[in-house]
Write a structure and sequence with these properties.
This protein is of the alpha/beta class. It is built from 10 helices and 7 strands. Helix content is 45%, strand content 10%. Helix 3 links the parallel strand 1 and strand 2. Helix 6 packs across helix 7. The chain is globular and about 45 Å long.
Amino acid sequence: MPALVFLICFQLLLLQIVLALEAGEQNQTVKQVQDTNTAMASPNVNLNKPVKLNPTPVQSYSIQPEASPSHSEELNTGASIPPIPRDEILYSVPAAGKRVALTFDDGPAFRYTMEYLKVLRENQVPATFFLVGRRIQCNPSLVSMIVGEGHEIGNHSYDHPNLELQREAAIKEQLSRTSDLLSQWTQKEIKLMRPPGGAFGPGLLKVASEMNLRVVMWTIDPRDWEKNKTSNEIATLIKKNMEPGAIILLHEGKPQTLAALPILINDLQKDGWEFVTISGLIGEDN
C-alpha cells in the first residue's frame, strides 16, 4: 500500500514537471514573436535589406465623365461629310468643319518649291499642288519630292492656257499630256484638276468627266500674285475670309507667298483650324 501511494505521488510530480517545461517553452515562443514584431516596427531594423516602412500613399483619382465632342470636333472626323459627286465643281466643303485645304498653283518652281516643302514639313502640314505640264518636264524630280513628302498633286494643264476658249480636243490634249507626266513621275492615278485662272466652260467639264477628273476651284483667293502684295496682307486676307471647309488658293514662285506661309499656318492652327489635302477635305483620303 505505501508503495502504491509513493508511485502515484511520483507520477504527479513528473506530470507537474512536464507541464512546467511546456509552459516555459510557450512563453519563450511568445516572447520571440513579440521581439520580432518590435524589431520590424523599429526604423533601425536591418534584415539583410532595407525595409520600407513608409510606402507611397495610394493616390486617389476623381473620375470625370467623358466630355461630349464639340460640334466642330464631330465635323473634323469627316464622318459627317456626305459623298460629293465627282462631276460637281468643288469650291468648298462646309461639312468638313474646321478642316481647310492649302492649294498651290503653277508649279513646280525650281527656285521655290523646295522652300515651300520645307515650311510645310516643319509645320507638319499637308497641301495640294496643281502642277503645269511644261514645268513638270523641266523639274520632274520636284514632282516626286512633293508626293514623297505626303502631299497631293493635281493637273493644271500643260502650258496654262484659257481652257474656256479651247475646243474639246485641245482641252483633252492639255489634260492628257499633263496627267501622263504626273503619273510617270509619281506612279499614281491623277484624280484632280484645276483650270488655269479658274476659267472653264461646258467643254472642260465634259472632258474632265470623261477623264475621271474632279474640277477643284477655291473659296479664298488673296491674289497673292499681285505686284507689291505683302506677306502680311496675304495672311490677313485669308484669315479674314476663313470658313468651314475652305479651299485656299496660293501660287508657287512668289516670294511674298512663301513669306506668308508660316505666318498663316501658325495663326490658323492657333485658331483651331486643321490642314488637309483636297482628298482629305472631301473624306476620300483612305
